[in-house]
Write a structure and sequence with these properties.
The relative contact order is 0.10. The chain has 36 helices and 10 strands. Helix 24 (627-632) links the parallel strand 9 and strand 10 (642-648). This is Phosphoenolpyruvate carboxylase.
Length: 920
C-alpha cells in the first residue's frame, strides 16, 4: 500500500523528534507531524502496520483480520491528510489577508463590497438586498457520513492541537506536550473505531447534527455577521446599515419522513425539544458569562434612569427581588442578568417537561428584548463598547438560532399524503372509492374542502394508522409554533410532486390538522397557512412540468394569501440527485437551469417571488460543486438574495467541523449569494447558447438512457459494486429504497452514486457526455466546434458542467472497474455493459479535452489534480482488495469467517469514501 503523501525521510524514520514549527503555506510540515504521530501509535499497538504506512507492505497476502487493521489505519491517515489540508488552506487565507488585505480574498464580504463600491453601486441598493437576504443551508441526515460523533470530536481536537503547534511561542517542553496530546487523540481514534456497530437511529442523527452547533456554529455564525458589518463599514464608511439575521440553518434531521418509517410525530417532537435545549443551554452559558463579567457597581458608574426602571420591573416580576439584591449588592447589571438567567432556567425546565414556578420566556423575542435593554443600559452609561463587544454577540446568537437552533423542515412524499387524503374522503363520504387522482372530481373535492369551515371537533381516531400519523405530524406544527417558537419549523417539503392537486392536498392536510390561521382575526375569514408548502421537483419530467404546475397553483386563493403572508415568496425545491439519476449529468444540469429560468420569469409575471431550494448532495453527481462557481452559474435573476441548499453527510463535517473552516464556508456562501444578487440579470446568453445546450443535453441523455435500459443493467450493478453491502455500514436510519422494491427506479440516488464511485465506474458524473459532444460536432462540423469552444469560455453553466466532468473522469479507473465487472456471473451481460462503458469513457475523455483545449485531464485544476493523484495509489490498491473481499464475502458460508471478511469489506468501503472525500 503506497502512503498517500510522503513525510520527509528524516522525520518518517525517527521514533521521537522535536516537531518543527509549521510555517509557510504548504501542508507538508503538518503532514510530517501527523504522519509521525500516527506512526508512533502504530508501532505501539500493531508494529506490522508500520510497513503499511511506509507503503512497503503487500496487503494482498494479509488475512481478513490484518487487512481490516490495515484499512483502518489508512482511513485514519486520509482523515489526517484532510485536516492538514484544511489547516494549510486557513493559513493561506490568513497570509493573503495580512499581506494584501481582506478584499484580496476571493469569496469574502470585503471583496464583494469593495467591488460593489468600485462599480458605483449605492448603499441604498446594498441595504435593500440586505433586508431581503435569506440564506439557509439545511442539514440532512442522508446516509453519507461514516464518522461517529465521538470520532468527529477527536478529529476536531487533533485539528486544534495542530493549530496550536503553528505558534512559535512554545518552548521545546511545551511543544513536546502538544505532540503527546496529538498522539493521544490519534490513539483514541485508533482504539475507538469508525464503523457504526448498530443501525443508526434518528435520535443519534439529531445528536450528530447538534454536534456542529455546539462545536462551531453557535459562535461562528454571529462572528460571520460581524465580519459582514466590518466589511460594509470599510467599503461604505459613514453609512449605517441595518443587518437582519439573514443567515440561519435549517434541518431535515428528525423531520424527514420520506421513505423513513422511523421518523414519527413523536420522534419529531423529541427532535424539536432537543434542538430547543441546545440553543437554550448555550444562551444560559452566555448569560452566566455576562453575569460574571459585568460586575459594574453603582458607586463607579451611575445607573441610567431608564435602565433602573427596567431593572425594578424585572426584580418585581421575579418575586425574588430582595434575595437577588442581597446576592449582588450595588451591582445592577448582575442583578438584571440574574433575572434573565432565572427566566432562562424556567424556560429550560418547561422544555424538559417540568413545571417551573417563576416566570419564563414565552418565545425568543422576550430574551432578545431583554438583551437589547441591557445593551441600551450600558450605552446610556457610556459603556457602549461593552454592550457591543459582550452583549451583542449573545443577542445576535438568539436572533439567529431563537429557541429552535434550526428551522426544522418536514418532508413527506405524495404517495403518503394522497393515501391520507383518500382516507379522509372515505371518512366523510362513507366506504367506496374516492375520485380518481387527476380527475376533475378529485380537484373539486379538494377545492371544496379547502374553503369549507374546519370542524374542530372532528376525530381522526377511525382513520388508518398511517393517515393518523401523517395528520399528527401536521398537528405538531400548530402545537409547537405556539408553545416552542414560531420559527421552529421551516417548511413542509412535498417530494414526488406531480400536479397542482398534490400541493393542494398538503394544504388541506395542514388545514385539517389545525395549522391554518385566520388572516384577519379569530372571527374573520379567509384563512392562511403559516407553514410554507414547498413542492419538490426531482425527475426531468417533473422539472419540465414545474412551470405549468406553479402557474396554476399560484392562482389558487389560499395559496396566494398564504404566500403573501409568508413574505410574498413561494419556495420551490429542485432535486439534483434524481434528475441526474434519471437523465445523466448534462441533461440534469440543463433541465435544472431551464426550470429555474422559466420559474423566475413566471414569478416576475405573477408578481410573486420564486425562491429556490437546491437539493444538492456531496458528490458532483448529486450537485456538489464549488460553492462560488455553483452559485454564479445559476440563471440570472434566479437568486435575488434568497438561497437554500441541503448540506449532507460528509459535506457537513468537512465544512463545519472546525471553526475557521466553518467561518470561511459561511462567508463564502453568503458573499456568493450577495454577489449573484448584485449582478441582477448578469450574464447574458451568447447567440445559440440555449440551442447548443439543448442539443447537448438531448444527445447525452439518449446515450445515458440507452445504458439504463440495457438488459441486465440492474444485475450488473448489483454484482459489480458493493450496492447491497453499503447498507451494512449503518450510516443512516432510513432504508436505501423508498418502498422496499428491488427496481432501479425505486433505488435512492445516494446508494446509486455511492456504489458507482466505489467500483470506479463513476458513470453518474460523466456517462453520455462524450456522445452528446460527438453528436453535436457531427451535425454542426467545424462551425459547431468553434461554437462549443466559445460557449465553453462564455457560458458559466456549460463551463461548470464540463469542468466537473473532466475532474470526475480522473476518478475513473477502467482496469479496476473491469475487475469489479468480473464479479458479474453472466458473461454476456458483463461484456455487453462494460464494453459500452469503456467506449463511452474513451469518447468522453477525447471530446471534453477537445472542447477545453487541454492535453490531459484536470490540468487546469492543479490543486485538485495533485490532491487526487496523491491519494489514488492507495485508493486503487484498496479497490482491488475490495473486489476480492466482495467475492469472498458473497461466497463464504462459515459465519465466523464471513464476519471477519465483512469487517474488512466495510472498512474498505469507508476507506475509499474517505479517500475521495465524498460518498453519495
Amino acid at each position: 500500500m503506497t502512503r498517500t503523501l510522503h513525510a520527509s525521510p528524516g522525520l518518517a524514520e525517527a521514533s521521537a523528534f522535536a516537531p518543527p514549527v509549521i510555517t509557510g503555506t504548504s501542508a507538508e510540515q503538518a503532514l510530517d507531524i501527523l504522519f509521525q504521530a500516527l506512526l508512533d501509535v502504530a508501532r505501539r499497538h500493531d508494529p506490522d502496520l508500520e510497513a503499511v504506512l511506509h507503503g512497503t507492505a503487500d496487503i494482498s497476502r494479509f488475512s481478513p483480520e490484518m487487512l481490516a487493521r490495515a484499512l483502518q489505519v489508512q482511513g485514519i491517515w486520509f482523515h489526517l491528510i484532510s485536516i492538514a489540508e484544511q489547516n494549510a488552506a486557513m493559513r493561506r487565507r490568513r497570509h493573503i489577508e495580512r499581506t494584501e488585505g481582506r478584499a484580496a480574498l476571493s469569496g469574502s464580504f470585503a471583496k464583494v463590497f469593495s467591488d460593489a463600491r468600485a462599480q458605483g453601486i449605492p448603499p441604498e441598493k446594498i441595504q435593500a438586498l440586505l433586508s431581503d437576504l435569506r440564506i439557509r443551508p439545511t442539514l440532512t441526515a442522508h446516509p453519507t457520513e461514516g464518522k461517529r460523533v465521538t470520532v468527529l470530536e477527536k478529529f476536531r481536537r487533533i485539528y486544534l492541537v495542530l493549530r496550536e503547534l503553528e505558534m512559535p511561542r512554545w518552548t521545546d517542553r511545551e511543544r513536546n506536550g502538544l505532540m503527546n496530546e496529538l498522539r493521544d487523540q490519534i490513539e483514541l481514534v485508533w482504539m475507538t473505531g469508525e464503523l457504526h456497530l448498530e443501525k443508526a437511529t434518528v435520535e443519534r442523527e439529531v445528536a450528530w447534527g447538534l454536534h456542529f452547533f455546539d462545536e462551531t456554529l453557535f459562535e461562528m455564525l454571529p462572528e460571520t455577521m460581524d465580519t459582514l458589518e466590518e466589511s460594509l463599514a470599510e467599503a461604505y464608511p459613514g453609512t449605517p446599515f441595518k443587518v437582519p439575521p439573514f443567515f440561519q440553518f435549517g434541518s431535515w434531521i428528525g423531520g424527514d419522513r420520506d421513505g423513513n418509517p422511523y421518523v414519527t410525530a413523536a420522534v419529531t417532537r423529541q427532535a424539536l425539544h432537543r434542538n430547543a435545549l441546545a440553543s437554550l443551554n448555550r444562551y444560559r452559558d452566555g448569560a452566566r458569562e455576562l453575569g460574571r463579567t459585568l460586575s459594574l457597581t453603582e458607586r463607579a458608574l451611575p445607573l441610567p434612569a431608564t435602565f433602573r426602571q427596567e431593572l425594578d420591573r424585572q426584580l418585581a416580576e421575579s418575586g425574588q427581588a430582595r434575595a437577588i439584591a442581597r446576592r449582588n449588592p450595588g451591582e445592577p447589571y448582575r442583578q438584571y442578568l440574574t433575572c434573565v438567567l432565572r427566566k432562562l432556567d424556567a424556560t429550560i425546565a418547561r422544555n424538559e417537561g417540568q413545571h417551573p414556578s417563576g416566570p419564563d420566556y414565552a418565545s425568543a423575542d422576550g430574551l432578545i428584548e431583554d438583551l437589547r435593554v441591557l445593551e441600551r443600559g450600558l450605552e446610556d452609561a457610556k459603556c457602549g463598547a461593552l454592550g457591543r463587544d459582550l452583549v451583542r454577540p449573545v443577542r445576535r446568537m438568539v436572533e439567529i438560532f431563537r429557541f429552535s437552533t434550526v428551522r426544522l423542515d418536514l418532508r413527506e412524499n405524495t404517495t403518503r399524503t394522497t393515501e391520507t387524503l383518500q382516507a379522509l374522503w372515505r371518512q366523510r363520504n362513507g366506504e367506496g372509492d374516492p375520485p380518481a387522482l387527476g380527475s376533475a372530481a378529485w380537484r373539486q373535492w379538494l377545492d371544496a374542502e379547502l374553503v369549507r369551515p374546519r370542524d374542530p371537533e372532528r376525530s381522526f381516531e377511525n382513520l388508518p394508522d398511517a393517515a393518523r400519523e401523517t395528520l399528527a405530524t401536521f398537528a405538531l406544527v400548530a402545537e409547537m409554533r405556539e408553545s416552542l417558537d414560531r420559527e421552529a419549523f421551516g417548511a413542509f417539503i412535498l417530494s414526488m410532486t406531480r400536479s397542482v392537486e398534490d400541493v393542494l392536498g398538503a394544504y388541506l392536510l395542514a388545514k385539517e390538522a389545525g395549522v391554518f390561521l385566520d388572516a384577519a382575526g379569530p372571527e374573520i375569514r379567509p384563512e392562511i397557512c403559516p407553514l410554507a408548502i414547498v413542492p419538490l421537483f426531482e425527475t426531468i419530467d417533473d422539472l419540465r412540468a414545474a412551470p405549468a404546475i406553479m402557474r396554476e397553483l399560484l392562482t389558487v386563493p389560499v395559496v396566494r394569501r398564504s404566500t403573501r403572508w409568508q413574505g410574498g415568496v413561494q419556495e420551490v425545491m429542485i432535486g439534483y440527485s434524481d434528475s441526474n439519476k434519471d437523465g445523466g449529468f448534462v441533461a440534469a444540469n440543463w433541465e435544472l437551469y431551464k426550470a429555474q429560468s422559466k420559474l423566475t420569469r413566471l414569478g416576475q409575471e405573477l408578481g410573486v417571488g420564486i425562491a429556490f431550494f437546491h437539493g444538492r448532495g456531496g458528490s458532483v453527481s448529486r450537485g456538489g460543486v464549488p460553492t462560488h462557481r455553483g452559485i454564479m452559474a445559476q440563471p440570472p435573476g434566479s437568486i435575488r438574495g434568497r438561497f437554500r441548499t441541503t448540506e449532507q453527510g460528509e459535506v457537513v463535517s468537512f465544512k463545519y467541523a472546525n471553526r475557521g473552516t466553518a467561518a470561511y464556508q459561511m462567508e463564502l456562501l453568503a458573499a456568493s449569494v450577495f454577489e449573484h444578487a448584485l449582478a441582477g440579470d448578469g450574464e447574458r446568453a451568447s447567440v445559440g447558447h440555449d440551442d447548443a445546450l439543448e442539443a447537448l443535453a438531448g444527445a447525452s441523455r439518449a446515450a445515458y438512457v440507452r445504458l439504463l435500459q440495457t438488459d441486465g443493467l440492474v444485475d450488473y450493478f448489483q454484482s459489480a459494486s458493493p450496492l447491497d453491502e453499503i447498507a451494512l455500514l449503518n450510516i443512516g436510519s432510513r432504508p436505501a429504497r423508498r418502498f422496499g422494491a428491488r427496481s432501479l427506479s425505486d433505488l435512492r440516488a445516494i446508494p446509486w452514486v455511492f456504489a458507482w464511485s466505489q467500483n470506479r465506474h463513476v458513470i453518474t458524473g460523466w456517462y453520455g457526455v462524450g456522445s452528446g459532444l460527438a453528436s453535436f460536432l457531427d451535425v454542426r462540423g467545424r462551425e459547431g466546434e468553434a461554437s462549443l469552444k466559445r460557449l465553453f469560455q462564455d457560458s458559466r453553466v456549460l463551463r461548470l458542467v464540463l469542468d466537473e466532468v473532466e475532474k470526475t473522469l480522473m476518478m475513473v479507473d477502467l482496469d479496476i472497474a473491469r475487475a469489479y465487472a468480473g464479479l458479474v456471473p453472466d458473461a454476456s451481460v458483463r461484456d455487453r455493459i462494460f464494453s459500452m462503458i469503456e467506449a463511452e469513457y474513451a469518447l468522453t475523455r477525447e471530446m471534453v479535452l477537445r472542447v477545453s483545449g487541454g492535453s490531459d485531464l484536470a490540468e487546469r485544476f492543479p490543486l485538485f489534480r495533485d490532491r487526487l493523484k496523491g491519494r489514488l495509489p492507495t485508493i486503487n490498491q484498496v479497490g482491488r482488495e475490495q473486489v476480492e473481499l466482495l467475492a469472498r464475502y458473497r461466497a463464504e458460508t462459515d459465519e465466523d469467517r464471513r464476519e471477519a471478511v465483512k469487517s474488512a469489506l466495510l472498512l474498505s468501503i469507508n476507506c475509499i469514501a474517505v479517500g475521495f472525500g465524498s460518498t453519495g
